[in-house]
Design goal:
Helix 1 packs antiparallel against helix 2. The relative contact order is 0.21. Helix content is 74%, strand content 0%. It has 2 helices and no strands. Keywords: Membrane, Transmembrane, Transmembrane helix.
């Protein structure tokens, strides 16, 4: 699940600048999504992984 969230965050982070480069409609909305992707990546980077060993 953590890996899937990380991949989603990376895709969102890349989508914003790509939309600006290709002059897509509503590119500013893609930039907002890019900011949310950056927040997701940062949050996952600072969260500790739970140990699976008991």
């Amino acid at each position: 699940m953590r890996t899937a969230l990380l991949i989603l965050g990376i895709c969102l982070f890349i989508a914003g600048p790509a939309a600006k480069i290709y002059h897509l409609d509503h590119a500013n909305s893609y930039m907002i999504a890019s900011g949310l992707g950056l927040v997701m990546i940062t949050a996952l980077g600072f969260m500790k992984k739970k140990d699976s060993e008991n």
